[in-house]
Amino acid sequence: MTSPVWNRRRLLQGAAVAGITASGLTGTAHAQQGGAADLVLSGGRVLTLNRGFRIAEAVAIKDGRVIEVGDNRSVRRLIGRRTDVIDLCGRTVMPGVNDSHAHGLRTGLALPPYTVDVGKPAISAVTEAVAAAIAQVAPGAWIRGKGWDEKKFAEGRPPTRQDLDQISPGNPVALLDWSNHQLWVNSVALRIAGITRDTPDPGGGVIVRDSAGEPTGLLLEGAARLVNERIPAFTEQEQADAIERNISLLLSHGITSYTEPGIGAVAQKLYADKARRRALRIRVTALLSRPDDTYPVSVAQVREILAAQQPLKGIDRRWLNIAGVKLRADGVPIGSRTAWMREPYVGGGRGGLLTVGASDSEKVAELTAMVALVHRAGLQIGTHATGDAAIDAVATAYASSRPSDQRHYVIHGDFAWPETLRLLARNRCGVSFNPNIKRLIADTQPGVVGPERAAYQTPYQSALRAGVQVTSASDTPNVSPHWLQGLETILLREGNSGTVSGPEQRIGVQQALRTYTTAGAWQDHADHWKGSLEPGMAADLCVLDGTLLDERGRLAVDAHAISDIPVAMTLVDGSVVYDSSDKSARAAATAAQNAGWARNPNPEHMCANC
């Protein structure tokens, strides 16, 4: 298609990023009192995502809000001498995407130059990348990496510290896997951390050992902290730059809001500083974690978080809102088998809760007490739970707290069975699924949990049938923030090989789009002012360079082609914040896209995380 036509100079300068008042006029009244629109987009297919899923041709915007949605003729009356007009040339306009679970700071830090891309097809290729990085740093400097996947290694075996020792006898190396649940380190890193054959496994973690009892260099779950706490922290400036790089990346995907699931004091300060300077460019809802950015697994740690929390001052909550606390119940149901399951994995073991306690019942009691503590503080709770037993425990804990409108939710929710989903629905709780993760692991899951559970995993249809509020999220940087790939996966439920996994859990395209827009706004307690394109709602828009739906709201392209549709433009608060025709914006987005985990719509080492 040809590029959309508009007065570019005024469009980029005309609408300053500003907060939206909680009370406002309706679109018609606002248009009568405020005169002409600031911006009109016409000649396209506008997916309003309102209750009736109305499809229009044009949308008018003033002061950061939608003031009219309709056919070209009805909206044209709002065009004045100073109105900027974009001819959509048939493109699709929809509400900006609300990514309900995206690690923004981590995403920025997962990009070069902060982190080495080690998502390689062989251990030898990983060591080559690490050797190249070592050549650029001083002796003794730490090398951080991310993205490796043991199942992809040509050598057909787990990596070891000896693999890294050959090329890094003096620099400590710490390489996080694709799932954020395994850390591969060299002998220098083990020595610095004081890990020997006599070091006991820490609570919630495993130090993998060889037949002689020596550490192999693999640290699972909580054991990774033994090394991570010795790695020098990124500076505040590095973290601030990383947040900015993440924002540019997300905006290039049409994402206008996201939930940052677990931030400590430094990240909160950096986000707040940007919000006060009106420089955030994207809307952020955040959940708190511990000061060291790890997730609480005990009541004592939750108390620390609540005691340290400082109220936000001088900040429009529609740009930054600290909504609650992130808790963590278990691990992940992949090769590490750390999710807590009702029935054993293929090969044995059921995983377990990561909360403190000497038995399952004690751990469940601790989790329930953690939920109750946050709930009584009046805050929202998002709890990482992937195994069915863990989800059962979380749903029961939510129910016992008798939530009203705090909108607690389960993060990931891989194996939430119908009876548990109904319990969540009765208590007005939600679940946040990760379709890109489903695509990544679908082919290998039968060997981990068996074919029946693998097919059911990420049960969109069951959740909607139960009446649960269902959101879709990327879990970036463990998965690419490419939400169109996620939409494609929701509709097809295909793994990387093309094999279908659980077709009975497919849902329709209109339902799927709501999980990325209106449901995300619900999770944010913001469905009264964002998430749909109606008069009075926030003018947060994603413009796709193609036709997604026909005039009757049906899919207009082959589902396999959805992920190939480019994002042409992103607007937040009525201002263009990403434009694919702008060279500088495209260059910034491309630099981020070229990172290993985000380099294409279907990277091989995207993944599930906390």
Automatic annotation (TrEMBL):
The Amidohydrolase domain, residue ranges: 84-578
Pfam families from the UniProt entry: Amidohydro_3 (PF07969)
Domain of life: Bacteria
PROSITE patterns: TAT (PS51318)
Name used for this protein in its record: Amidohydrolase YtcJ
Organism: Kibdelosporangium banguiense
